[in-house]
Design brief:
This protein is of the alpha/beta class and 392 residues long. The protein contains 14 helices and eight strands. The longest helix has 25 residues, at 2-26. The radius of gyration is 45 Å and the shape is elongated.
C-alpha cells in the first residue's frame, strides 16, 4: 500500500511540474521577443562600395567593388602665343634689296640709254617706251623725257655718275617726296582713329589689313579689327588669325550679314576698349557693280556716326597696271581715298604705277607690300624706292 502511495505522489509531482511549464510557456508575454536588429545605417554610395561583402574575408569568396572611373580632365585650351612684331620704322630700307631685284631692270635700261655718246630721236623714243612700259603713264613720261633732254643739252658730255644723278632727280620729282605720307592713326581724345581698307578682289586687301594691324602693334598701338567682308567667310577667318597672332580684338558678323553693322560694332568696340586704332576690312567688291559701291559709301557713313574715318586706304596690285588706275578712280569717287597701299611691288618691273596713280588722284602711296612675309608691309619711302630702281 505504501508502495502505491509513493508512485502516486511521484506522478502528481511530475504532472504539476509539467502543468506549470505549460502555463509559463503559453501565458501572454511569456515568450521573450527576439531582440530587434538595429536599423541599417544609410551610407553614401562610395561607402557602400568600400564595405566588405558579408560572409567572407578578402580573397575568399568576397566580391570587391571597384570605384567608379575618374572623370577625364577637361582639355586645356592653350591660346596662341602673341607675337611681338618689329616697329614699322626703317622697314623699307631693310627690304630695299627685294625691291631692287624686281625694279632695277628699268633703271639699268634707262641708264644704259642715257649713257650713249649720241642721243638721237630714236634713243629718246626708246627711253620713252621703257618708261611707259613700266606704267609710269603717258603724261609723266613726257615730262621726264622733256626735262632729261634739256639737262643733257646743257651738260653736253656726261659721266655715268652725272647720268645717274639726272635720272634720279627726274624720277624723284615725279614720285614727289613732298606729298604727306603720314598714316593718320592717332586717337582723338576718347575715340580711336579709324582706318577703312577698300579694294577689289585679289589685290591682297585682307592680308594688307592684317599686316597693317601687325605693324601698328609693333609701334606700340592697340588695335581692333572689323571683319566687314561678310561675303567671304574665309576673309573673316583670315583676319581672325592675323588678330590672334598679335593680340588684336576681331569683331565679325554672320556670313552674308550687313557689312555696315560689323563696321559700326567694331568702332563701338574700339571706343569701349579705349583702343588706339580700328581697322575695318571691307568686301573686295568689283568696281563695276554700282550697288556694291553704294554699300561701301554706306559703311563709311555708318562709322562716322560714332567716330571719324581718318584714313581710307585703297589697296592696289602693282601688277595690274592701268587697270588698277581705273579701279582707283572709281573708288575715289565713292569714299574719298586718302592713301594707296601698293602690294606686290617686289614682283613686278612696273613700279611706275607709283607715279601714275599719284598723279591721277593726287593721293600719295603710303604703304608698299614688298613680299609675302608678315612684316613685309612698309611705309613708302620715295628716295629708297628711286634708289632701288637705279641700283647701286
Amino acid at each position: 500500500m505504501d508502495g502505491y502511495l509513493g508512485v502516486i505522489v511521484i506522478v502528481v509531482v511530475v504532472a504539476l511540474v509539467a502543468a506549470g511549464s505549460l502555463f509559463l510557456l503559453f501565458r501572454p508575454g511569456g515568450k521573450a521577443a527576439p531582440p530587434a536588429e538595429p536599423p541599417e545605417t544609410l551610407l553614401p554610395p562610395e561607402e557602400k562600395e568600400k564595405r566588405p561583402a558579408a560572409g567572407g574575408e578578402e580573397g575568399e569568396g568576397a566580391t570587391t567593388t571597384l570605384p567608379p572611373p575618374a572623370e577625364p580632365a577637361e582639355a586645356v585650351v592653350v591660346p596662341p602665343e602673341v607675337e611681338v612684331p618689329p616697329p614699322s620704322a626703317g622697314r623699307m630700307v631693310r627690304l630695299r634689296s627685294r625691291l631692287a631685284r624686281s625694279q632695277s631692270a628699268l633703271g639699268r635700261g634707262l641708264l644704259e640709254l642715257l649713257s650713249r655718246d649720241r642721243l638721237d630721236d630714236e634713243v629718246w623714243d626708246e627711253i620713252e617706251e621703257a618708261l611707259i612700259t613700266a606704267d609710269v603713264g603717258v603724261a609723266p613720261t613726257r615730262a621726264i623725257v622733256e626735262e632729261l633732254r634739256t639737262k643733257v643739252r646743257v651738260l653736253g658730255t656726261r659721266t655715268p655718275d652725272q647720268v645717274r644723278a639726272l635720272l634720279r632727280e627726274q624720277l624723284l620729282a615725279q614720285v614727289n617726296p613732298d606729298l604727306d605720307r603720314t598714316l593718320h592713326v592717332q586717337r582723338h581724345g576718347d575715340r580711336p582713329a579709324v582706318v577703312l581698307v577698300v579694294g577689289v578682289n585679289g589685290t591682297g586687301k585682307t592680308t594688307t589689313t592684317g599686316k597693317l594691324a601687325r605693324s601698328l602693334v609693333g609701334d606700340g598701338k592697340t588695335v581692333v579689327l572689323g571683319a566687314a567682308d561678310t561675303f567671304r567667310a574665309a576673309a573673316a577667318d583670315q583676319l581672325q588669325t592675323w588678330g590672334e597672332r598679335v593680340g588684336a580684338e576681331v569683331v565679325r558678323g554672320p556670313e552674308a550679314g550687313d557689312p555696315a553693322s560689323v563696321a559700326f560694332d567694331a568702332t563701338a568696340k574700339g571706343i569701349l576698349d579705349k583702343a588706339d586704332v580700328v581697322i575695318v576690312d571691307t568686301a573686295g567688291r568689283l568696281h563695276t557693280k554700282t550697288g556694291l559701291m553704294d554699300e561701301l559709301g554706306k559703311v563709311k557713313r555708318v562709322i562716322e556716326k560714332k567716330a571719324t574715318v581718318d584714313e581710307v586706304l585703297l589697296v592696289l596690285d602693282a601688277t595690274t597696271g592701268q587697270n588698277g588706275m581705273r579701279q582707283a578712280q572709281v573708288f575715289a569717287e565713292v569714299v574719298n581715298i586718302t592713301g594707296i597701299a601698293l602690294t606686290k611691288l617686289d614682283g613686278t618691273a612696273k613700279g611706275g604705277i607709283v607715279i601714275s596713280v599719284q598723279r591721277e588722284l593726287g593721293v600719295p602711296v603710303k604703304l608698299a607690300g614688298l613680299g609675302e612675309g608678315p612684316d613685309d608691309l612698309a611705309p613708302f619711302d620715295p628716295e629708297v624706292f628711286v634708289d632701288a630702281i637705279l641700283g647701286d
